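Teaching note: in complex prediction, the entire set of molecules is handled at once rather than each chain in isolation. The prompt given to students was simply: 'Predict the structure of this complex.' The entities are:
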Amino acid sequence: MSYAWGRNEKIAMTTTKTMWANHLIRFGRLAKLIAIAVVAIALLAPRDSVCADSAPNVVLNTGKAGPRSVESPTERVILRDYKFAWANLEQAMESSSTAPLSGLFVGTANAWLTDAVASQRRNGLSSRYLNQNHKVDAVFYAPEGDMIELDDTADYDLQILDGDKTVHNEHVVVHYVVLMTPAADRWVIRQLQAVPQF
Amino acid sequence: MSSSINTVWKGHNLRRVLEHGTLAFLVGVLCLAAPAPAQDTDLRAPSSAVAGNAASIATTGSGTGTFYLVGPSIAVKREVTLGQDVQLSEKELQSAGTYLAIVCSGNCRSVGFFVAPAKPVNLTFLVHPSRAPVGQTNMVSGVALLFDEFRNLVLVPATVDFQLTAAGTAPATHRVATQNGVAWFHTNSGRSAGALQITASVNDVATRRVVQQVASDPCSLRIKGQRNAKGFIVETEPVRDCTGNPMPDGTIVTFTAKDSQGTGTVDAPIKKGIARAQMMGSGPVAISAASGVVMGNELRLGAQ
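The expected output is the structure of the full assembly:
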């Protein structure tokens, strides 16, 4: 059976198709907008740290330190170097490279982190410490000013990756006991040890 | 008709819009959904792990899986049989802190646990200063930190005995409980120059340091002098601090001579308790001496 369209029928059909096309184009644009919004939310949402990162946020309180009180310039330098150390730790663990650790970690802290990075690299693993927040209290400052002990309540998004595959992703709260000593032009971390609680 | 439909439906643009929209939508959904591995409790962590001691992690299920252990100084990956315990060696648990055990078989499950420090076998003992003037308040201080054999800071409270021993005096002992793994003391320096031995001990672990107590500032300075062929020679009487300790060699005494030509100074180090200087000049001269904050008597010598 054949069917012959007249001119008016063709125009009517064309008009209908145009309307559908416009609807679909609008739908496509809407879908695109929704998708952009979803991606933007995914980028900005704190739980999805795949796409998010920032420098460590460190708050240092030296009011409880003793027996020596912490001088303001010392406090500023400790805050600067502790923050810098964590940024470098994050970088070292993510890139499985020990280079960022040198100069900021010494002694036991350096040995532990170097071993951790080396074993990560050996096994094709990497880890990420994202969205770090550190609430740090100085609890002991030696009489001669040659050692300070910090209690750090840190929270961050911890990701463990095997190659490109994320095998663990969790927001964690970790308590660290930290020993820092002055070096030539900075304070360095000698001990960075997690504890169950303070 | 075909070209008409293509024109009307704007096929190319439509496909592009739909493809981009759908693709972006899928990317967004995947981005939200991907990093959310399961967090079941199919692993049972050791309840009280201690650094340097082997432990095991119980698993459930069957078949094989990939096991990961991430700790303060280690990252391990190995294949394991599910349903059996995963053995962790002494070496894998040497560092105290938080550990994360993960098993992946299809999806991933994890459990965290804590490894405590072992018993203290090392005592880090910082003492200041290495040389301390006698008779000073809170001049000597010490800080002790306890570590186990794997260099983990031991935070369990312990009592540290600080024993101070100097020649000619009875030993003094300070007992201090550690707080946050640290014990410290400060004390006055003694009255006599000489070695002050300080020992910090916990149970059978002890560390010794020595502080050299030296004379404090000179108490008085007396000088004497006489003419000679080159001019005049001046010297101090034996220089001591206020508790009678001789000043250490190398302490500088500054002699100042004033005559009609002007003023001249000579810095002379103390040797065996006495500082001595040869100065030039033939006319009447007034000589004085100083060391630190102490001024000596003025000595006048007539013309040659």
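Point out the following to students. Chain B has three domains: 43-116, 122-214, 223-301. Chain B touches chain A through 64 residues (CB under 8 Å).
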